[in-house]
Amino acid sequence: MDHGWTMASKQNPPRWIPNTLRLASHENARDKAVATGHLDPGSSILKTPAFATILLDSEKGRRCDHCFRKNAGLKKCTGCGSYWYCDAHCQAAQWQAHHKRLCKAFNSYTSSTAFQALQRHEKYDSILLSHVLAHITLLPDAYASEDMMYSVLLSLLPGPQHPSNTASDLPICPIRPPPPPDILRKIYARFGNNNFAIHSHLTSIGHGVFPIASRLFNHSCVPNAAAKYILSPTGSVTMDVVALRIIAPGEEICLPYLDPGLLQTREQILELSYGFKCDCVFCCFLRKIGPLPEIPEGEKELSSLEEQLTSFANISSISELKLPNPSIEKTPSVLHCLLRESYMTKLSETFSKASHEQKYDVALKSGITLLSLYLLVYPENYPQIGMHLLELAKTAWNATISASSDRFPQEMRRRVEVFLTLAFQVLTILGDEGDSDGPMEKITLLGGLLAAEA
Ligand SMILES: C[S@@+](CC[C@H](N)C(=O)[O-])C[C@H]1O[C@@H](n2cnc3c(N)ncnc32)[C@H](O)[C@@H]1O
Predict the structure, then answer these.
(1) Which of 14, 73, 85, 402 is most buried, taking the most CB atoms under 10 A from its CB?
(2) pLDDT of residue 428
(3) Is the domain of 323 the same as that of 193?
(4) Same domain, yes or no, for 92 and 182?
(5) Which residue's CA is the nearest one to ligand 1's atom 14?
(6) Is residue 236 located within the same domain as residue 354?
């Protein structure tokens, strides 16, 4: 079995590498995936199916455990009563993938004292690990299988060593044949730094093991690509890695391992969970400026800083043709306090609450400040920017229709158009993903309302 493919050791790239990519050596991360040719924004770089997945508890019973699609008429597994499926097709597919090895023992395993003593994230790991192992036992030759994805899974870099990474204490569902302890340890040691959160329109719905994507993509806090998830009635979840901007031939393709908006905690998370120090321009800038200053308590002072932020982000120049792209490294030092994570959270809460309570002036002011911050911290065409532009368009629309006709400002209408067009431009790069009732449908709906009002 080929567990350790490296650039140096083989001439011909393995068949799991798509022709958009080649592997090259990386000084700290073993290998890196580089583009073989020019890639336009929105190009698909890699499509890869999951090796195993698990739904979050919040989604259990409202999404199919196999295809992850929402379904009001799910049917429960009559064996264990703990898995739900769209239909016989999804049930049969998951039965063959892993469930036939788990169904009988599943409930006694999850009600055991050992399982119940686990933290929530460990419970997810424990069940996902059981899915992975059960799947392996169903491959030809089980734990000695030559299966491509299994080989790639075993060849992944392990996460940093810490006690929770040893698998010896992690209970798993009893599986026949039982996994050799070294395989069990090896796979679990690769969970923390390789698995992915599966999301639909920015909401996490599950976790997944996608060995090929893990093997290929390193992290950047200023990524040029992003992963989206395709939910289809014909199979389990597929990951699609999409270019966010033009990528030149030979350029490394990176994904964000965490939310690039985590400006204060990401260094620690990357070190603890992934075992490396990020050297992207953004992290170098944050290290250079040191601890972020406190946010001023006075309302006037904060409001003046917010005006300076929107002016630095050049928000007034917004047109439907292009979003400004302010450079984080040039952020004036007086604005560094606004890079605190708590400030972004608070601003986002103010925007949502004010929109909800129909305080549109407050909502639009905080929403535009939040947009300035997003443009500063997120890379070009990042979906958070597009989703926020859509929220701004909805808020501006509600403000427009709630105003009395004599107050109906043409300028506000124009704002709706601009936000909506920009939301479309950004979100169309990632394209359709997750559930079908996504932001693109909402953009079409609001565009229709706007046209009808004209
Ligand atoms: C999902 S793997 C990435 C694929 C890896 N390059 C390989 O050759 O298999 C994650 C691991 O790669 C390394 N890594 C990823 N991004 C990195 C970066 N920007 N700098 C240093 N190491 C990185 C870390 O060891 C991390 O735990």
Answers:
(1) 85
(2) 97
(3) no
(4) yes
(5) 29
(6) no
In the DSSP assignment, the letter for residue 163 is G
Q: Do 115 and 167 share a structural domain?
A: yes
Asked if residue 138 has pLDDT above 80, the reply is: yes
Secondary structure (3-state) at 50 = coil
> Is residue 173 predicted with pLDDT exceeding 70?
yes
CATH of the domain at 223: 2.170.270.10
- Residue 240 tokens read as 């699609």
* ipTM for this prediction: 0.99
The dihedral sign for the CA sequence 145, 148, 152, 155: positive
Q: Going by CA atoms, what residue is nearest to atom 3 of ligand 1?
A: 218
Q: Are the C-beta atoms of 205 and 198 separated by less than 8 Å?
A: yes
Confidence category of residue 4, pLDDT binned at 50, 70, 90: very low
Domain carrying residue 152: 21-255
- The three-class DSSP label of residue 271 is helix
How many Å lie between the centroid of ligand 1 and the Cα of residue 54? 23
Task: Give the whole-angstrom CA distance, residue 312 versus residue 373.
Answer: 10
Binding-site residues, ligand 1, Cβ < 6 A:
26, 28-31, 156-157, 159, 193-194, 214-215, 218-219, 274-276, 278
Which residues does 347 contact at the CB level (< 8 Å), separation at least 6? 366, 369, 370, 373
Q: Tell me how far apart the alpha carbons of residues 252 and 238 are, in angstroms, rounded to a whole number.
A: 22
Distance between Cα 204 and ligand 1 center (Å): 22
